[in-house]
Amino acid sequence: MSSEVAPEIPKGNGWEPNILAFCCNWCSYAGADLAGVSRFQYPPTVKILRVMCSSRVEPAFILKALNDGADGVLIAGCHIGDCHYIDGNKNAEVRINNTKKALAKLGFDKRLRLEWISASEGLRFSEVIRDFTEEIKKLGQNPVKEVKK
Amino acid sequence: MSDIKGTETKSTIQDNEEKRVGVFVCECGVNIGGVVNTKAVAEYIGTLPGVKVTSVNKFTCSDSGQADIQSKIKEHNLNRVVVAACSPKTHEPTFRACIEQMGLNQYFLEFVNIRDHCSWIHMWEKEKATEKAKDLIRMGVERAKLLEPLQASEVPVTDKALVVGAGVAGMQAALDLADMGFQVYLVEKEPSIGGRMARFDKVFPTNDCSICILGPKMVEVARNKNIKIMSYSEVKAVDGYVGNFNVKVEHKPRYLDVTKCTGCAKCSEVCPVEVPYDFNEGFGTRKAIYVPFPQAVPLRAVLDKENCISCKACAKACQSGAINYDMQASYTDLNVGVIIGAVGFKTYDPEPRHDFGYGLYDNIITAMEFERLLNAAGPTGGHVVRPSDCKEPIRVGFVNCVGSRDKATNIYCSGVCCMYTIKNAQLLKEKRPETDHTIMYMDIRTTFRGYEESYNRSRNLGVKFLRGRPVEVKEDPVTKNIKVRVEDTLAGEIRNLEFDLLVLATGIVPNEGIGQIQQLLKLSKAADGLLMEAHPKLKPVDTTIDGVFLAGCASGPKDIPYAVSQGSACASRATILLKNKKAITEGITAVVNPDVCVGCQVCISMCPFQAIKLDEQAGKANVVKALCKGCGTCVTACPTGALEQSHFKNKQILAQVKNVFKFQEVAA
């Protein structure tokens, strides 16, 4: 698998995005664990914050993270139908999509992503992080950081 | 349900004590230490406010590592502990117990994952991994300072068990539990217990007659006074939690009174309708009213309403007056403490495009079909014949790994196909020595006791082994023989072979209805469609749901001894709960602040477990702790902020959020 080969390490002092990932305890956090166990390498741009369910993520947490300079926020939960709490992820979906709409007005909507990653999808976890990192790189740094300076 | 002890969360206790945090960084041998500069991490973390001591250990989970935590708690009078190591999913209980021994509340532990989420996935970026570890631990330290004491709840356990699926694994689990004195409900969706093993002819490596060893077990299950068999029944609803599962079981209508039916099969004799016999893999026929198979338990007939023409001949023939055409499904509500899922498997269903023209050509059959043809009680009385002309084949080819080890179907190895193919070839060769057998394989896997010996026996009998996968399979339109073009990868040449019969060694795939059981029991399903265990090595029969266990092929392909061991393992794991009559559940729940709650009931509408009730008198929401699973959905939904999730309070999560990016700013 890809993990056996050292990936290309970004050279120079290029800017690396900072991503905060809220992972649900049951699926996505375990998926991230599996990515680790399987040594599926992904960029060190993401920090994982464990919550019991994706539905626990309040829009305020996302706004706080973005206001504090996060370049991207990922919310990851169980696939629809697989939620440990029956349908918490459906609530999360509604909430995150509404937050996205609100963020769109500020041009921040692409910095927020919702993904369903199961406990068995270690490879997918690493792919999502890589993909999101690339996307954020295209968007550039969170403009809030400039303003705050 | 309401007699729960120790649910008081003490979160209201004022905790003004100075926060004295100890941080323990684990090197996990070289797993972490080989990538993350743990000394530098500990040095940095030591500068954070509130951190009184940091320590680096080779293995924090070891005896000496835990002793280090305990001695530092004493020495520095620590009241919060941060362990930066592997995953809390595996090691949180270890360290919770460790600090609890020192008199600290177990929820004063914060676990930071710097292995699975850092060193293992940034193996070639050591500096960045070190910086990331600092960030992760800083988040943990800030959260740890805000952690509040909680108490785990103790819930009573009903000393009854439900076993779903009465194949060999489920039967073993039921028998073991029953023999230990617990009441067991054994639910089977088919009209008879026995599962797949009842259909096999002989079983490897010793080639015992399958039903001869299974039949007595089935009878034992039926005779055990602690086991209540619910055949032709399905689990329709499950709620509750460890120790107190409420289960609704549907009994599908058999259209006859099982208390009157004697299994004499007089009804079948007179029934004019013939349909393909599913027990014989569609070979031969059965009637619309039939006894599933001669050794069926319970030995009762069942009427297949779909094919019944309502001629009522069976009702006239039945001497005990058992037939009832108006029967409806009935339901039983069970209350059980534990649930064992042994929902089994089905064999891969080959399709013409991928699988060598199965379905297009008459003389290509699956191994399960071959199994029934070999069986003395099968459609041909044990004579293996070709479907096209009912002649006994001389040249028989076997193709291994059909629906296994194949990117187009299932990538995993089904584990049993090599062995059953070897066994099938042996059996036919022994019955009819004039036959000629060629097994086309990718690798022969004979991993357990007696398997290699069985393989050698086949070779000695003259079974040929050809390493290679057919590239072309065609039917001779006149003889209906099967022509196979295959690369012999050991000899390095293309071979053109002709067989009278070709047998596909189909793999093990998830059973029908596995998705339903997965959703009912809230289990995780892997990418291959099979159910996931709590830990693949150390908790192979547990699941992430307390009180729910898995046995047999539901959690991956297994042979019979493995499935039986798992059945016994489940019974043993379940007994811990059933015998102790109590279970410890997480202290993480939603908590209402009645001063802020306005009684809008949004939380009540959001809760998936009906755990929040309105206190009519006070007009406030009230969380039933025993029902609350601590997801936090209601907390996020509460418009006034009256709800908090203990251990995941807003301030605790925000403390982490605020501290994610601090380090870069300081460094920049």
Averaging pLDDT over every residue of chain B, what do you get?
Answer: 93
In what range is the share of β-strand residues of chain B?
15-25%
Gross morphology of chain A: globular
Biggest interface found: A-B, 54 and 55 residues
Number of strands of chain A: 4
Mean pLDDT of chain A: 89
Sketch the major β-sheet of chain B.
5 strands, parallel
Distance between the first and last residues' Cα of chain A: 43 Å
Q: Main sheet of chain A: which strands, in order across?
A: 2-1-3-4
Number of helical segments with 4 or more residues of chain A? 5
Radius of gyration of chain B: 31 Å
Strands in their spatial order, largest beta sheet of chain B: 10-7-6-18-29
Task: Provide a descriptive summary of the structure in words.
The complex is a heterodimer of chains A (149) and B (668). With 149 residues, chain A is α/β, with parallel strands linked by helices. Chain A is built from 5 helices and 4 strands, in the order E-H-E-H-E-H-E-H-H. Chain A has helices at residues 28-37, 59-67, 88-104, 122-139, 143-148; strands at 19-24, 46-51, 72-77, 112-116. Chain A has a 4-stranded parallel β-sheet, sandwiched between helices. In chain A, helix 1 links the parallel strand 1 and strand 2. In chain A, helix 1 (28-37) crosses helix 4 (122-139). Chain A is globular and about 40 Å long. The model of chain A has no long low-confidence stretch (mean pLDDT 89). With 668 residues, chain B is α/β, with parallel strands linked by helices. Chain B is built from 18 helices and 34 strands. In chain B, strand 24 (470-475) and strand 25 (482-488) form a beta hairpin. Chain B is globular, with a radius of gyration of 31 Å. Chain B starts with 20 loop residues before the first strand and ends with a helix. Mean pLDDT of chain B is 93; it is low at 1-14 and 664-668. Chains A and B meet through helix 1, strand 2, helix 2 and helix 3 of A and helix 4, helix 5, helix 16 and helix 17 of B.
